[in-house]
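Title: Comparing notes on inverse folding

I've been comparing how different people in this forum approach sequence design from structure. To keep things fair, I'm posting one structure and asking everyone to reply with a full sequence. Here's the target:
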């Protein structure tokens, strides 16, 4: 009888220890998961701050590829983070700092801002989630001169999460050199679109 009581007590201790270790295990991994989530949130917040405070005068991108990269960094945040109206205004102003004088002439700031807001809503309603972008190799940027003006073209691959998997869209840029800086002269979706299940 005493042996039965001792073995029951020993079995109960084993069960309690097992439950204790499972709880510790779950708490530990929950903690790690929360830390990773906080880190991602901090990284997103840092990127938003960096882009809102970006110095277009002192740190303007050097190459057409760098201009496209910065342009897409803005769009990666704009189409994924639910920014406030005040943040959208600042981001729109920063993006306009990458545009050529002619592009600015035909697109006033308020019109740009409204188009930006409409596009963000449309992308969200269509179920697209901006995932990432891929720049072309430097050797794939095409340089040429048109009517004595230096110009360049390149395509950037945009990756979206969609219900069916992922979708790739290509954005073509035509840039012009103004005052020794590459400026976006024309940009838009090219004909090439791919889907991956």
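Reply #1:
Here's my take.
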């Amino acid at each position: 009888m005493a042996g039965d009581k001792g073995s029951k007590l020993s079995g109960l201790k084993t069960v309690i220890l097992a439950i204790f270790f499972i709880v510790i295990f779950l708490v530990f991994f929950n903690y790690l998961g929360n830390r990773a989530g906080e880190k991602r949130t901090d990284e997103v917040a840092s990127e938003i701050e960096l882009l809102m405070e970006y110095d277009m005068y002192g740190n303007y991108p050097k190459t057409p590829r760098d201009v496209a990269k910065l342009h897409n960094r803005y769009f990666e945040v704009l189409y994924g983070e639910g920014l406030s109206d005040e943040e959208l205004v600042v981001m729109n102003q920063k993006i306009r700092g990458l545009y050529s004088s002619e592009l600015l002439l035909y697109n006033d700031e308020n019109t740009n801002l409204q188009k930006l807001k409409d596009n963000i809503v449309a992308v969200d309603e269509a179920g697209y989630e901006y995932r990432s972008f891929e720049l072309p190799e430097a050797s794939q940027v095409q340089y040429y001169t048109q009517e004595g003006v230096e110009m360049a073209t390149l395509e950037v691959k945009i990756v979206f999460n969609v219900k069916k998997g992922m979708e790739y869209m290509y954005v073509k840029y035509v840039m012009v050199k103004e005052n020794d800086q590459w400026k976006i002269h024309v940009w838009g979706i090219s004909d090439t679109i791919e889907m991956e299940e």
